[in-house]
Sequence to fold (276 residues):
Amino acid sequence: MVNRKELDPETSPSAAFGQRLRALRDERGWTQDELGERIGCSGTHISAVETGRRPPTRRFAAGADRAFGTGDRFVRQSRAVRYTALIEGFPEYVTHEARAVELRLYEVGVVPGLLQTPEYASALEADAVRREAITPEQADERVRLVTQRQESLTRSPAPLIFAVLDEGCIRRPMGSRSCMDAQFARLLEFAELPNTVLQIAPFSMGERRPFSLPVTVLTMPDRSLMSYAESTHRGHLERESAFVLPILTAYHQLQAEACSQAESVAMIEQARKGIP
Fold:
């Protein structure tokens, strides 16, 4: 116990992970070497993770879950460590998104991540770097996650994806003209897929638009529902059906008021040609 570094789990995701790892190890009376043997690493590595000097890999976290019998608790917590550029709550949401059988998206102002091209995502994050909201390394992390999320949705059977985009998503230029041209092409390709529906919520909807902020509703394999919404600093994942069902109802109303997919495709094609 001499010179044992104390961790404040509130300071960072790494500190929170290390503090939990140490607490469970102490409860069982294991040394760092003994835990290392169970996970498949050295005691020195355990020490580095516990003190936040080395981030836990997914393999390490899975080994910790096996050693302690904690399900996937450490695996889920390790995502928050790796995705330091993401707001609180989003890493957990991504794990459910990758399993959902139906996704209903509504986005305002920017094309949602699941539909972004790498160039569009890079242009979006480059502006955040310019404003010093994030570091260049964090921008790269966000762009990589966009690609990873899209890859997870190519599974078989493919999930049903309903996407309603506020008109501002296609009117707001992002990056170069070629960047926007490629993004428009990506949206048109998305609309052609057999498992997708793409709609534009035009500005003319005015007060009939039920949402003023982005929202996502997930249907899971057991048909349970979740919703996800973000504030400036954190995301909120809602699992209680009593709170999710009204959001789903409002989403259906949004779809009924938005342009049809054919009308939406025509609007995107006009935007691509520079036609107001």
